[in-house]
Design brief:
By secondary structure, the protein is mainly alpha-helical. It has one domain. Helices cover about 70% and strands about 0% of the residues. It contains 8 helices and no strands. Helix 4 runs antiparallel to helix 7. The longest helix has about 35 residues. It is globular and about 55 Å long. The protein starts with 20 loop residues before the first helix and ends with a helix.
Length: about 240
C-alpha cells in the first residue's frame, strides 16, 4: 500500500541503529538547547528593530561557530564509535574514487542549488512578510570576517550534512523503517535549529531540509548536498552583499 512508507517500525538486524538510542536522545536535547538559545536571541527585549542593531566584531563569533560545527560532528563520531556499525566516511557515502566522481557531484550540486534557491523564494513568497528581527549585522565585513565566513560556510556544509542528512536521517530511518518519515523528521530538527532567524525562516529552512534529505536519499551519499550547502552559505553571506550593493 502507498501508506506503508509512513508506517513506523522498530530497528531490525538488517536495519540497525547507527548510534545508541540514548546518544540520539541526548543529541536531540542538545539541538533543542541550541534552538532555544537562538530563539532567545531573536525575541529578547531591548534589541530594537533588529536582533543585532550594530555590526559587532564577528570574527570571534565565527570561530566559535566553526568549533561548534565540528564539535557536533565529533559527537556524531562518538555515537558511531559506540555502536560500531558504521564510520563517519561510510555515513557520508565514502571518499571520491576518481575525478569523474568529483565532476558528477558538482554536476548534481549545481542544478540542485538553483532548485534550492527557487524553492526558498517560492516559500518566502507564499509565507509573506517576516516579522522577525533581521540579522544582517551578523554578516561579514572586512577581509578577515569574509575569510572566516567562508571557512564557516564550508564547515556548515560538511558538518550539518553529516549531522542531519547523515546521522539523524539514517537513525530516524532505522527507528521508523520509513525513509519518508526520516527525511521529514531530520528536516524539522534542522529547521528548528535556525530559530535565531525567526519563525518564518524556521519553516523555510525546514522545507529546504526536506530537499537536502531527498537528495541524500537519492544519491546515497552526502557529497552533492555538502557542496550545494556550503556554496549557498557563502553566497548568502559576503557574496550576496557584494552582488546587491
Amino acid at each position: 500500500m502507498a501508506t506503508d512508507a509512513l508506517e513506523p517500525s522498530r530497528p531490525t538486524p538488517d536495519r540497525p541503529l547507527v548510534a545508541p538510542l540514548r546518544h540520539t536522545l541526548i543529541f536531540l536535547l542538545i539541538q533543542v538547547g541550541l534552538a532555544a538559545g537562538g530563539a532567545y536571541m531573536q525575541h529578547r527585549p531591548g534589541t530594537g528593530p533588529s536582533a543585532t542593531p550594530e555590526h559587532p566584531a564577528m570574527a570571534p563569533v565565527y570561530v566559535f561557530m566553526i568549533v561548534l560545527e565540528w564539535a557536533l560532528v565529533y559527537y556524531v563520531w562518538v555515537g558511531l564509535h559506540q555502536q560500531k556499525r558504521i564510520g563517519i566516511l561510510e555515513l557520508a557515502g565514502g571518499r571520491w574514487k576518481s575525478w569523474k566522481d568529483v565532476w558528477l557531484d558538482l554536476v548534481i550540486a549545481a542544478p540542485f542549488w538553483f532548485v534550492w534557491e527557487e524553492a526558498a523564494q517560492l516559500m518566502h513568497n507564499v509565507l509573506g512578510a517576516s516579522h522577525a528581527k533581521p540579522i544582517d549585522a551578523l554578516l561579514p565585513q572586512g577581509a578577515l570576517e569574509i575569510m572566516l565566513w567562508c571557512v564557516l560556510s564550508v564547515s556548515a556544509g560538511v558538518c550539518e550534512e553529516i549531522v542531519f542528512r547523515g546521522y539523524f536521517q539514517k537513525q530516524f530511518q532505522a527507528l521508523t523503517g520509513s525513509i519518508v518519515l526520516a527525511v521529514l523528521a531530520q528536516a524539522v530538527v534542522f529547521g528548528i535549529g535556525h530559530a535565531y532567524q525567526g519563525t518564518k525562516q524556521v519553516v523555510v529552512i525546514t522545507g529546504l531540509g526536506v530537499l537536502y534529505g531527498v537528495l541524500a536519499a537519492w544519491r546515497k551519499n552526502l557529497r552533492p548536498g555538502m557542496i550545494a550547502h556550503a556554496w549557498s552559505d557563502v553566497y548568502g553571506g559576503w557574496m550576496f552583499k557584494l552582488l546587491t550593493k
